[in-house]
Model the fold of this input.
Amino acid sequence: MQKYEKFSTRLVQSLGNKEGAVSPEIVNSAAFAYGTPEIAEGIFSGSINKALYARMGNPTSAQLERVLAAMDGGVGAIATSSGMAATALATLSLLRSGDEIISIGGLFGGTYSFFKETLSRFGVRTHFFDVDALDEIAAAVTARTKIIFLESVGNPNMRLPDIPAIAAIANEEKVALIVDNTITPISIAPLDFGADIVVYSTTKIISGNAAALGGCVVFRAVEEHDKFRGDRYREVHQFIDKMGKTALIANAKKRAMRDFGMSANAQASYLTMLGMETLPLRMERVVKSTQMVALKLYEEGLHVNHPSIPSHPHHIRYIKYFSGGCGTLMSIDFGTKERAFEFLQRSKLVTITANIGDSRTLALHMASTIYRDFNEEERAFLGITDGLVRISIGLENPEDIIADFLEAAQ
Ligand SMILES: *Cc1c(COP(=O)(O)O)cnc(C)c1O
Done:
């Protein structure tokens, strides 16, 4: 469990200040004064790195950005108002009408709707594939493909993509790979495996207690011989010429943040950083509990879906790539909606909500809530069965969780 140890030192050390206020400082101002016209000009041209206006970033969120970028090994990051805002920022900054997206696995309901309904209204088409359809994925790349998008753990289908294999396709075809890594870099570091941009919902386990909605996008550095220098990304070239390594950040700020305004606010960034301090500690506990609960319920005959269970189709991949676990999620299929509702009514421990990654154990019946507007074919693709309950394991004693679940499932 070396991963947790590495992050525990780095996180607490980078979140507190050694001089002055120890806790991160909240800068609430929406506007920032420049002092002189020369400095104003420098800030707007990018030659002076100071706060411009809160829509373009603020000092409190900048600290969060530095810490998350460092965790992921990125060149920089942009904090956003939510996880969906992070996905919107990362994708919209690269897209124009007529482009195509290849979306793999998962998929979080909001992301699915964003690709399928919203982006298609603006002329961007998305092709959806299972994580193991590698040949089909490679064959689907066209001159119009701008983004390959995947979730590091399918929410809620718990399928695990082979990220290095998919990154190899993206790099071969010179297409940007964006990974939704809401399970955090403690579980897997997509940039190390060849991804270009990583998006987070910090609302989940990074904050850890439903105190703050937020998101973040982490970017890798643009290199000498880079796919972003290719014809596919002509709009980005002006930023590469001007900013070099940090071109993707400048591109995202100018082509998405400035005009859509999905910026993080200082209060949310502060609360997110408070949560982050204890992330490695919470993660270690929750991963252990999740594996323990999943195995016990499986042995008791419940239809549990979690890759730590040896019969899971991606169990080998789980052991190979997810040595730090794959977050807080598992699912249980109760067969019918009635039986799923009975479980949720009888459990004294679960909080019924759409969130995940909380200190408390959370649960939700999928088909009647998040996926209620999806048709049968879409639900089948995303693994949403009638009796499916998604569980997010919390910090309670795992023995208490097991006892409560077995009682409620009787
Ligand atoms: C929650 C979630 C999102 C969206 O994040 P919000 O902060 O709710 O906007 C995106 N991806 C995954 C995997 C999520 O769990």
Summary: The longest helix spans residues 279-299. The pocket of pyridoxal-5'-phosphate is lined by residues 82-84, 108, 110-111, 151, 155, 180, 182, 201, 203-204, 213, 215, 356 (CB under 6 Å). The CA atoms of residues 16 and 22 lie 5 Å apart.
